Amino acid sequence: MNHEIYMRRCIELARKAFGNTYPNPMVGSVIVHNGKIIGEGYHHQAGGPHAEVNAILSVKTPSLLPESTIYVSLEPCAHYGKTPPCALKVRETGFRKVVIGTLDSHDKVNGKGKHILEEAGIEVISGVLESECQRLNKRFFTFHQKKRPYIILKWAVSADGFMDKNNKPYPIGNSLTRQFVHQMRSEEHAILVGTRTALHDNPSLTTREITGRNPVRILIDRQLKVPENFNIFNSEAPTFVFNSVKNEDRRNIRFIKTDEDEDFLQGMIKKLYENDIQSVLVEGGRETLNSFVRKNLWDEAVVITNPGLFLENGTPAPDFDFTAEKTVRFRDNAVQFFRNKASM
User: Fold this and answer.
1) Which of helix, strand or coil describes residue 66?
2) How many H helices and E strands in the chain?
């Protein structure tokens, strides 16, 4: 039996919930009987049934389950959360074989689900398309292994290297890249800007160009200079304000004090981890982006370039001397994708 075929289908299913499962990982599951898929499922959102349960419930002839193999892209959970452990559900269903893409590095699982199944006498195969399954949940794995969010940097730049015109906002991308950016926002847990960007652009940081969830908004505003009637504080999404003044919760706004006598950026990252933020899209200006680059505190970067636009004067793009893995054209815009190999 070609396990990779069915595991690829698990990954395809899992991707359907991209951006909707936080803080849970994306997981897909397929049930196979005599070489035929008889059930499929994936985890739709946190608090809902997990992939294995949805796959089991989709099978029209339950009597075939004990003679079937269940494939799952991530090790079945072994702890009680908002739902019972999937490892127990798989065991009780009586599957003869379980094929796992990758083990779960979460402290509450990390081999425990596999152990439960093996103790019950079920044949367990793991590590099928392991790297692909880990990439699927790179945010989840980074969060639990490195104790920090997965960090993606993003900015747009003119052909002559400026992010704005005469230090004032200027449209650089086209309609396609704007939609692309809003899609990115919907797929990440949070989005971050600094004081200057908030004051100059008054951004909402929402996904208004597409249909998708709004990310949690993060504002670095050490001295609380951004007025609370600005768009970043509206009711469309929660907002975390990292500052050096106060801790306070008000409506959808959480002010989080980070001490000046420590590394402010590292202190903020630590508190984002403590607040269960798994990924951050950094859309700040030059200063904010440079602070992440200097600390080598990034996993991916996306740079949108308009090769036909010359602004002549403005804020220079961040200092970023890396080679793109690929470039994609969006009509007259070029989008470059970078990966930080030092953080892998």
Assistant:
1) helix
2) 10, 15
Where does 168-299 show beta strands of DSSP type E? 190-194, 216-220, 239-243, 248-250, 253-257, 279-282
Side-chain-side CA neighbours of 238 within 13 Å: the count stands at: 10
pLDDT averaged over every residue in the chain? 92
Q: Is 341 a residue whose pLDDT tops 90?
A: no
Asked whether 68 and 99 are in contact (CB, 8 A), the reply is no
Q: Catalytic: 52?
A: yes
278's tokens: 């798994």
State mean pLDDT over 267-275: 95
- List 40, 52, 188, 283, catalytic entry: 52
Q: Kindly give the pairing relationship between strand 150-158 and strand 333-339.
A: unpaired
pTM of model > 0.85: yes
Contact 125, 114 (CB under 8 A): no
Which pLDDT belongs to residue 107? 60
Choice between 56 and 87, residue whose per-residue pLDDT is larger: 56
Cβ atoms within 10 Å of 278's Cβ, excluding its own: 24
